[in-house]
User: Which sequence fits this backbone?
């Protein structure tokens, strides 16, 4: 729990790392599924059933969440434009690594960040493919220099 993180570890704050297991979109779907099954009521549902204070709290929570979405929307759009451009250029390991590192700030978001997650997955796949092609080329060029590493036809077919 983010409220009690200080009680979980005595490490220096600079050495701590927060890892999200689910995105906000995935958590929202889980909450809806649980509510539909009638298994339990969430805090948000309980708050919305209270006459006045719950509505105020829920609306304040929604405004805060909307503000966060808006503040992330523009940088995410800029990131998507840069990523799209990079995907159409010659592979650069450094540029891909930088983009993937920058994408981490958006990946936890809700469904509005689905496009960022999809493009990040495409970047990872393109990076893996480019590195495999580079490895294959180095083997072929090495064979011309009497290097004993061979490239199997199945591997080349897989790359194509």
Assistant:
């Amino acid at each position: 729990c983010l409220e009690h993180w200080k009680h979980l570890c005595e490490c220096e704050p600079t050495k701590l790392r927060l890892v999200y297991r689910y995105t906000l979109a995935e958590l929202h779907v889980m909450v809806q599924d649980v509510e539909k099954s009638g298994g339990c009521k969430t805090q948000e549902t309980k708050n919305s059933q209270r006459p006045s204070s719950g509505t105020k709290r829920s609306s304040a929570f929604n405004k805060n969440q909307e503000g966060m979405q808006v503040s992330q929307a523009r940088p995410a759009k800029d990131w998507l434009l840069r990523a799209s451009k990079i995907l159409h250029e010659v592979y650069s390991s450094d540029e891909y690594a930088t983009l993937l590192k920058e994408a981490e700030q958006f990946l936890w978001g809700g469904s509005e960040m689905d496009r960022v997650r999809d493009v990040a997955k495409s970047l990872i796949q393109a990076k893996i493919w480019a590195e495999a092609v580079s490895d294959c080329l180095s083997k072929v060029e090495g064979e011309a220099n009497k290097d004993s590493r061979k490239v199997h036809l199945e591997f080349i077919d897989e790359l194509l």
Observations:
- Confidence is low (pLDDT under 50) at residues 49-65.
- Residues 2-159 form one domain.
